[in-house]
Amino acid sequence: MTAPIVQYRDVCKSFGDVEVLKGINLDINPAEKVAVIGPSGSGKTTIIRLLMTLEEPTSGDIVVDGKNLWKMEKNGDMVRANENHLRNVRGDIGMVFQHFNLFPHMTILENCMTAPVHVKKENKDEVRKRAVEMLERVGLGDKIDNYPSQLSGGQKQRVAMARAVVMRPKIMLFDEVTSALDPELVGEVLEVIRDLAQHEDMAMVLVTHEMDFALDIADKVLFLDEGVIAEQGSAKEVIEHSQNERLQSFLSRFRS
Q1: Could you report the per-residue pLDDT of 207-216, keeping only the tens digit for each?
Q2: Does residue 159 contact residue 100 with C-beta atoms inside 8 Å?
Q3: Range of the domain at 123
Q4: Do the bridges between strand 220-225 and strand 171-175 make them parallel or antiparallel, or are there none, so unpaired?
Q5: pLDDT for the residue 1
Q6: 48: pLDDT confidence band, cut at 50, 70 and 90?
Q7: If DSSP codes are grouped into helix, strand and coil, which group holds residue 13?
């Protein structure tokens, strides 16, 4: 058996008096595609923000490729991780956000090149070649010298995905990446994610409300409800055959 690439062990997260995650236990395997669904406020985005080190767990452990993310060993004891440790473990993780987060003063090619060159210290010519190939793959090869302000929302989101893949992560996180898009642009972004899921050998965690899409690409679906994983299993088991009343009520909103 291959060891999980990500492990959550009794992970809890509170914001003030509000407990958002309540003892999450979860394994994500290398190259596994995981969809996370659930009502607003159920803790979906918090799960991936903890993994991206954008939020810190209140308690519990997250292990990435065998290394504890939020804790490190010092003088024989496990202590709170410092920024250097977080950066090193986080280096294998990429994330695509709802609102693109592109650098407005850089061309889209520069957006895709800056982190591999300046953070990972990779060869600039090699990175440029990889970035151009990736932008061509997402249908933006003719836009490499454009700036984000010259692109549609769907194009910006495709740049954000290309930028993340150019970093060659082992784990890719998608946070409701179609929710800020006009409806007519959703399909083009989902198609890029579908292509990545089929051809990239990396784990993917997708917080999504696109149920048909989750059914199509996910190896595993998690249903979060009030901070706990209320249901998990294959996409068919969770989306089509679950007997969980809360899940059925949630899914009924997406059925015509």
Answers
A1: 998 888 888 8
A2: yes
A3: 103-168
A4: unpaired
A5: 66
A6: very high
A7: strand
CA R_g for the chain: 19
CA torsion angle for 154, 156, 157, 158 (degrees, to 10)? Answer: 90
Q: State the virtual CA torsion across 76, 81, 82, 87 in degrees, nearest 10.
A: 120
- The CA angle 118-92-163, to the nearest 5 degrees, is 55
Q: How many domains does the chain have?
A: 1
**243 membership: H or E segment, kind and range:** none
Return d(Cα 163, Cα 110) in angstroms, integer: 9
**In angstroms, rounded to a whole number, what is the distance separating the alpha carbons of residues 10 and 85?**
21
Residue 159 within any structural domain of the chain: yes
pLDDT in tens, 132-168: 999 999 999 999 999 999 999 889 999 999 999 999 9
- Residue 138 maps to a domain: yes
Tokens 């999450």 correspond to 24
In a domain, 59, yes or no: no
- In the chain, the amino acid numbered 136 is E
170 and 203 Cβ atoms separated by less than 8 Å: yes
Section 78-84 average pLDDT: 92
The answer to whether residue 46 sits within a structural domain is: no
CA dist., res. 141 & res. 132, Å (int): 7
């932008």: which residue's tokens?
135
